[in-house]
């Protein structure tokens, strides 16, 4: 028997929230300029904290011409450090996803931010290529806060607007990758103008991102809330949120093939973005003989485009979901990311400064919008293992960055322009597996819903066994399934006949 839940809670429950909510108390509207507690406050805390981690992780690249002279860094040293800066977060993101499932995004995020802040401070005292690599490696762990950001938004916002919430939170956080291209050269110049030598000024400059990072962590702990109804600890203590088995959460995450495909494709949108953040300032500085500040401004335009590109990707994903369902979300993602690959190829081929800048900006629009569209799909892969799937996908972004930098931008095997072109080819190839993602209740890019009339309840309840259902552990999944009916799209009949319970991993 299919269980129906009302779209909204009763008046006595709903009046506790400033935004309209669904049966899970997730907001059904996304009001960008509101700071209403708990939904919009969580949004602003998440993107600002992720922004601070991006600033810290990519504070070094815009100052590389100065740092490399001070530490006698070779091209290989710089390439290795670039790889190190994104490799640490590969496993950290997977771990972060699991931590979010178990202790909530608030504690998981703040803890990681505080643990990695010392590495940013220690950058000011490094004296060798090895120590430069180590501080970039440990600072890069902080990028795993992306996973807690996306988990937090998926816990606070309902299906029709979750893509927009994820897109804005991730996009505005990613702004840090562009903002640091402006911030660090400016801070460096101010410190040098006060009287410090250039080899001292760049070291002092790292105290700014380190302090900012710590400040955001304390803000999350003091002002944040895990879920609409409270923090994980209280909800588990009162029994409002059943305690889940760690092994089962991992199992249903790792055995869902859709998560692995999204991890691969995310490696060639967000992974490409991380790669560009590491190389683009030096690329323009060396290829077009620009001043450090000028190269930083041009490089910043790539990351700063996130103020609208990634959020636009989330908005488009939600719009396509409302009109065409999940199939529309997948088609939009494939098309956008493929066009990003095309413009990446062109960027490596053009030799004019002005044309390169224009192509780079167009490239940034598509590749960053694809990031937003990816996390318009992720929340629907699994209800029970949302954190694990988010961590897998986020970690895939870092794996893509590591692999791409190792192949194309480590040492002198390829020129940077040649590496950029080949990276574009990789984007197009690694986006093709999106065609194999299939949801039996909604369909995929090539085929419609299953002829077995699989319902949303069939898909999400497949993650729970009979004993767990007897305990009532599956109730949240039932509500989530009901709130996901919008993913059928306007063109799909709203009526389904539930079939026998099927596992979402094997359907």
From TrEMBL:
Topology relative to the membrane: Multi-pass membrane protein
Q: Has the keyword Membrane been applied to this entry?
A: yes
Q: Where is the Major facilitator superfamily (MFS) profile domain?
A: 42-436
Q: Write the record's keywords in alphabetical order, separated by commas.
A: Membrane, Nitrate assimilation, Transmembrane, Transmembrane helix
Where does it primarily localize? Answer: membrane
Q: Name one GO biological process term.
A: nitrate assimilation
Does the record's keyword annotation contain Metal-binding? no
Extract the ranges annotated as region (Disordered): 467-507
According to the UniProt entry, which residue ranges have a biased composition of type Polar residues? 492-507
A GO cellular component entry from the record: endomembrane system
Looking at the UniProt entry, the stretches that span the membrane are: 47-66, 107-126, 133-152, 172-192, 204-224, 330-351, 357-381, 388-408, 420-439
The entry lists its GO molecular-function terms as:
nitrate transmembrane transporter activity
Q: Which family does it belong to?
A: Belongs to the major facilitator superfamily. Nitrate/nitrite porter (TC 2.A.1.8) family.
Which PANTHER family does its entry note? HIGH-AFFINITY NITRATE TRANSPORTER 2.3
Q: What is this protein called?
A: Major facilitator superfamily (MFS) profile domain-containing protein
In which organism is this protein found? Answer: Lupinus luteus
């Amino acid at each position: 028997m299919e269980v129906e839940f009302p779209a909204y809670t009763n008046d006595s429950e709903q009046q506790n929230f400033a935004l309209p909510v669904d049966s899970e108390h997730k907001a059904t509207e996304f009001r960008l300029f509101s700071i209403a507690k708990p939904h919009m406050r969580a949004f602003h805390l998440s993107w600002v904290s992720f922004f601070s981690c991006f600033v810290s992780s990519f504070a070094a690249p815009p100052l590389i011409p100065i740092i490399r002279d001070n530490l006698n860094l070779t091209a290989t040293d710089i390439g290795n450090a670039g790889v190190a800066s994104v490799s640490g977060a590969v496993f950290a993101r997977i771990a972060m996803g699991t931590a979010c499932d178990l202790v909530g995004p608030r504690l998981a995020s703040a803890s990681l931010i505080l643990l990695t802040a010392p590495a940013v401070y220690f950058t000011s005292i490094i004296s060798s290529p090895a120590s430069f690599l180590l501080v970039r490696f440990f600072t890069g762990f902080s990028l795993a806060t992306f996973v807690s950001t996306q988990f937090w938004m998926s816990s606070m916002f309902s299906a029709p607007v979750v893509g927009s919430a994820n897109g804005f939170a991730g996009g505005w956080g990613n702004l840090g990758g562009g903002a640091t291209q402006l911030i660090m050269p400016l801070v460096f110049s101010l410190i040098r103008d006060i009287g410090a030598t250039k080899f001292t000024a760049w070291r002092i400059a790292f105290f700014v991102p380190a302090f900012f990072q710590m400040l955001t962590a304390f803000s999350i702990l003091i002002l944040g809330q895990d879920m609409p109804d409270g923090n994980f600890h209280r909800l588990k203590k009162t029994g409002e949120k059943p305690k889940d088995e760690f092994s089962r959460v991992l199992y249903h995450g790792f055995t869902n093939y859709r998560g692995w495909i999204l991890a691969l494709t995310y490696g060639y949108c967000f992974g490409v973005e991380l790669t560009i953040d590491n190389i683009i300032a030096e690329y323009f500085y060396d290829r077009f003989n620009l001043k450090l500040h000028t190269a930083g401004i041009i490089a910043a335009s790539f990351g700063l485009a996130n103020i609208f590109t990634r959020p636009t990707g989330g908005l488009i994903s939600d719009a396509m979901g409302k009109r065409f369902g999940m199939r529309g979300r997948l088609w939009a993602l494939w098309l956008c990311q493929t066009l990003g690959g095309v413009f990446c190829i062109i960027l490596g081929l053009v030799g004019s400064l002005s044309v390169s800048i224009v192509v780079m900006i167009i490239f940034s629009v598509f590749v960053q919008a694809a990031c937003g569209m990816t996390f318009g799909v992720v929340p629907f892969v699994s209800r029970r293992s949302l954190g694990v799937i988010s961590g897998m996908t986020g970690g895939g972004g870092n794996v893509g960055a590591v692999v791409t930098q190792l192949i194309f931008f480590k040492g002198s095997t390829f020129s940077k322009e040649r590496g950029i072109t080949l990276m574009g080819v990789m984007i197009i190839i690694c986006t093709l597996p999106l065609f194999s993602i299939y949801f039996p209740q909604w369909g995929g890019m090539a085929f419609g819903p299953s002829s077995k009339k699989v319902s949303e309840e069939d898909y999400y309840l497949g993650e729970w066994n009979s004993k767990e259902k007897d305990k009532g552990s599956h109730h949240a999944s039932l509500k989530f399934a009901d709130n996901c009916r919008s993913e059928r799209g306007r063109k799909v009949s709203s009526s389904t006949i539930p079939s026998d319970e099927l596992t979402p991993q094997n359907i």
